[in-house]
Amino acid sequence: MNHAQSLQAWVPLVDFLADAFGSTCEVVLHDLRNIEHSIIAIRNNHITGRKIGDSLSDYALEVIHKQSRNPNKNYVASYYGTLEESGKILRLSSFLIYDEENELMGLLALNMDFSALEEARNIIDGFINNMEKLPQAAGREEKSMHFNLSEDYMPSVIAQMIESCGVEPMRMTLEEKRSLVEQLQLKGIFLLKGAVTEVANKLEVSEQTVYRYLKDKDER
Question: How confident is the model at residue 140 (pLDDT cuts 50, 70, 90)?
């Protein structure tokens, strides 16, 4: 098998890698015995705008130079470069191909476009920065949110609030009951139908007493 045939055997791998990694990864096969027109196969070339017959990049030249001094490793993975015209950030990986005489004959390159990920990171950073302004980040109590005010919601909240007091209603002082009613009002419980009756039953007081607690709070 001659030099050209040996490199042609790598062309299906170009298609495989391009399909596997998707449109953000340019896959290029170079013939290093014709550096000025080295590209013999390329996929997803919208990333760099290159085509078959174009030359090797300066990055690839550096890889070849460095790896020629390191015969025990025939690839370099995940080094970064920026396209001068577009400013795109690329993650570059290069695999050196040798012939039967162990002479360097080709290079398979993966050039992943990170510009979309960079934009996504900026958006995420913006969200993270805004999260520092949230109540829990400022040392205040984190509030649970409920999006379904079912029939069980109101009794459940009232029961939780009573339990948090650590005292059964029959043993609560008038002030403790008044305070509990005020806390429930802050949660908007009394906007729900039947809330006054439910709270009165749980606290073992009359509905008039609950109304009085609410009126006293509004007047303070």
Answer: very low
Candidates 84, 86, 88, 32; CA nearest to 60 is 32
How far is residue 211's CA from residue 107's CA, in Å, rounded to a whole number?
A: 83
Interval 21-26 mean pLDDT: 94
Strand order in the sheet with 104-113: 39-43, 25-31, 104-113, 89-98, 75-82
Task: Name the pLDDT band for 45 (thresholds 50, 70, 90).
Answer: very high
- Between CA 23 and CA 108 the distance in angstroms is 17
Would you tell me the crossing angle of helices 207-219 and 195-203 to the nearest 10 degrees? 110
Q: Provide the 8-state DSSP code for 146.
A: -
Average pLDDT, the chain: 84
Q: Domain boundaries in the chain?
A: 3-115, 153-219
Residue 129: how many CB atoms within 10 A of its CB? Answer: 9
CATH number belonging to the domain at 3-115, selected among 3.40.50.10490, 3.30.420.40, 3.30.750.24, 3.30.450.20 = 3.30.450.20
pTM of the model: 0.56
